[in-house]
């Protein structure tokens, strides 16, 4: 029997960010491995016209929860959705709900955050710093609390090259930032944002670092741990635009480490840390790196190659262009490739849409995609070293059964297999494409290749024709090539006649 799974049995667990990518997988694993847990409280806000109940219903009816519903048929009774908006004071939680949370919660997993790189500083601080502070305040009033697990990011200190499993201080105290944001107006905040974030690339990494400081400062005598995952598997959507042929070139360093980590690895580590923190009660707040680079590195070049090889084998339907990956580290080449490989085809396609009476959309889409990709540039042109002493220590503390059920050993990860499954997952679950359509998709790619050759040949001939009309030198070269080919053909014909 798994010790960790048994630990969560009968527990009341509070999860923030349960409707998010990682939160859903965390909840699923908890129900699957500890179906006898008492209740999972989730802090949810209504969104996109859906009530709390509708959101929970949607999660439970997703493919992810199919197995859980078999193992734990009364799963819907064990999820208690509590109205909460992390942007509000006390999260806007009702008195009764707050009372229940304070008196019953045993474990907290704090996953909620704004993960947008370009969030305004005020918003990012509110969610990633102030909300964390408020949740810690709530946690300090919970008599039955055994552990508080905070999800941060391995990139919270991406301004450093070597990162240890410690909390690094930021120059300005989080409390001072929170206080000043209360009275500064948005224009001034925008002005001082670059100075505050310093050598970090965005407000996301900066506020996640501030969030960690808050955790350290407000920990009191609670059992707290911080988990720092790197780039979590499926949030990385790049293979999709690449597979459709929208994105064919990128400013990336092929040798830089692509520190991806599968979401199930992150969730397994998170649950193991929850158990360890509650049972072993380490004296200080431990930080756990959930990264792949130092134990099982894969670089962007290798990853790009494998992604493309998989799209050759299992192509996506109705691709815009043939998938292709061009990595460059040069700014000028990036601009050139963006113009020739991205913007020009989008403009031509929009022209075709206009001609056929449809609304042009590709240029707009392409601009959005290129903007998103440019925000990732910082992360695909650098490598970091994360130490993983605490994570490895924890691995050695697990029983063989726990090491199997809650496996977070990235050394066992086979990248080629992982990427293939990833691409397959995008095709089947994100784009909902049928595998039976693969032969047609391959035909479509062949047609795109022929169009590409035809287009290039036509372009070459036009350019050549224009050159010949204007330059004697070009005419001489042309004459030389034609006469050379003629002589070669005559020789070839003569020698084959002799053989006969
Ligand atoms: C030549 C290409 C060959 C490709 C071969 C294949 C792979 C080879 C390697 C290529 C490298 C490519 C880069 C990989 C990505 C590296 C990511 C590094 C991230 C470091 C993360 C730090 C760790 C964290 O904690 S991350 C937390 C997670 N946060 C995010 O991931 C959020 C990032 N996104 C944003 O902040 C916003 O989306 C933003 C600001 C970038 C754009 O916002 P906007 O409102 O303008 O548009 P959106 O609607 O949100 O998106 C527009 C467009 O971009 C696509 N997109 C968005 N996010 C991602 C993403 N994380 N990965 C890939 N693509 C993304 C999105 O799908 C949209 O595309 P559409 O086609 O329009 O749908
Ligand atoms: N994804 C990644 O690659 C990585 C993520 N992380 C960290 O992991 C954690 C989870 O990330 P991930 O699951 O990818 O993020 P998502 O964006 O998928 O999920 C964010 C969650 O936070 C909730 N949330 C946001 N704002 C509010 C609010 N005002 N009130 C209530 N809930 C709110 C969202 O709720 P709603 O559904 O209502 O919007 C959602 O459930 C974050 O702390 C992130 O920093 C760390 C490293 C990498």
Automatic annotation (TrEMBL):
GO terms for cellular component: peroxisomal membrane. Its main location: membrane. Its EC number is 1.2.1.84. It catalyses: 20-methylheneicosanoyl-CoA + 2 NADPH + 2 H(+) = 20-methylheneicosan-1-ol + 2 NADP(+) + CoA; hexacosanoyl-CoA + 2 NADPH + 2 H(+) = hexacosan-1-ol + 2 NADP(+) + CoA; eicosanoyl-CoA + 2 NADPH + 2 H(+) = eicosan-1-ol + 2 NADP(+) + CoA; an ultra-long-chain fatty acyl-CoA + 2 NADPH + 2 H(+) = an ultra long-chain primary fatty alcohol + 2 NADP(+) + CoA. CDD domains: FAR-N_SDR_e, FAR_C. One of its GO terms (biological process) is wax biosynthetic process. Signal peptide: none annotated. The chain crosses the membrane at residues 451-468, 477-494. GO terms for molecular function: alcohol-forming long-chain fatty acyl-CoA reductase activity; alcohol-forming very long-chain fatty acyl-CoA reductase activity. InterPro entries: FAR (IPR026055), FAR_C (IPR033640), FAR_NAD-bd (IPR013120), NAD(P)-bd_dom_sf (IPR036291). Residues 342-433 form the Fatty acyl-CoA reductase C-terminal domain. Keywords: Lipid biosynthesis, Lipid metabolism, Membrane, NADP, Oxidoreductase, Peroxisome, Transmembrane, Transmembrane helix. The keyword Cell membrane does not apply. Residues 15-269 form the Thioester reductase (TE) domain. It holds the Pfam family NAD_binding_4. It is a single-pass membrane protein. It is found in: Peroxisome membrane. Catalyzes the reduction of fatty acyl-CoA to fatty alcohols. Belongs to the fatty acyl-CoA reductase family. This is Fatty acyl-CoA reductase. It comes from Callithrix jacchus (White-tufted-ear marmoset). The gene is FAR2.
């Amino acid at each position: 029997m798994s010790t960790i799974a048994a630990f969560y049995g009968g527990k009341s667990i509070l999860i923030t960010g349960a409707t998010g990518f990682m939160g859903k997988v965390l909840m699923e694993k908890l129900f699957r491995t500890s179906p006898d847990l008492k209740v999972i409280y989730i802090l949810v806000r209504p969104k996109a016209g859906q009530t709390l109940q509708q959101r929970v219903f949607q999660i439970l009816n997703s493919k992810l929860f199919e197995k859980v519903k078999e193992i734990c048929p009364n799963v819907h009774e064990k999820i208690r959705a509590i109205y909460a908006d992390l942007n509000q004071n006390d999260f806007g939680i009702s008195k009764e709900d707050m009372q229940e949370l304070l008196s019953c919660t045993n474990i907290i997993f704090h996953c909620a955050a704004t993960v947008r790189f370009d969030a305004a500083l005020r918003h990012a601080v509110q969610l990633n710093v102030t909300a964390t502070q408020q949740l810690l305040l709530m946690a300090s009033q919970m008599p039955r609390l055994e552990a508080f697990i905070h999800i941060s990011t391995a990139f919270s200190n991406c301004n450093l090259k070597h990162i240890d499993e410690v909390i690094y201080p930021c120059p300005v105290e989080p409390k001072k930032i929170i206080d000043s944001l209360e009275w500064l107006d948005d224009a001034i905040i925008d002005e001082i944002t670059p100075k505050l974030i310093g050598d970090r690339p965005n407000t996301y990494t900066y506020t996640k670092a501030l969030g960690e400081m808050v955790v350290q400062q407000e920990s009191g005598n609670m059992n707290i741990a911080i988990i720092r995952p790197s780039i979590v598997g499926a949030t990385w959507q790049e293979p999709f635009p690449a597979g459709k042929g929208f994105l064919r070139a990128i400013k990336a360093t092929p040798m830089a480490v692509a520190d991806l980590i599968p979401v199930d690895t992150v969730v397994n580590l998170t649950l193991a840390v929850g158990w360890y923190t509650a049972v072993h009660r380490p004296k200080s707040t431990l930080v756990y790196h959930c990264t792949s680079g130092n134990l099982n590195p894969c670089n962007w070049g290798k990853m790009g190659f494998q992604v493309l090889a998989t799209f050759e084998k299992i192509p996506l339907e109705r691709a815009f262009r043939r998938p292709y990956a061009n990595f460059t580290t040069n700014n000028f080449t990036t601009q050139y490739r963006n113009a020739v490989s991205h913007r020009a085809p989008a403009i031509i396609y929009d022209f075709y849409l206009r001609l056929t009476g449809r609304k042009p959309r590709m240029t707009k889409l392409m601009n959005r995609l290129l903007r998103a990709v440019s925000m990732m540039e910082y992360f695909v042109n650098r490598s970091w070293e994360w130490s993983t002493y605490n994570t490895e220590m924890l691995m050695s503390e697990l029983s063989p059964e726990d090491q199997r059920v809650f496996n977070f050993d990235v050394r066992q990860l086979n990248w080629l297999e992982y990427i293939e499954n990833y691409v397959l997952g995008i095709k089947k679950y994100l784009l909902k494409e049928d595998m039976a359509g693969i032969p047609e998709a391959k035909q479509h790619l062949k047609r795109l290749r022929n169009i590409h050759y035809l287009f290039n040949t036509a372009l070459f001939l036009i350019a050549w024709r224009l050159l010949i009309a204007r330059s004697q030198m070009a005419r001489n070269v042309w004459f030389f090539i034609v006469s050379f080919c003629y002589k070669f053909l005559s020789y070839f014909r003569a020698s084959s006649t002799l053989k006969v």
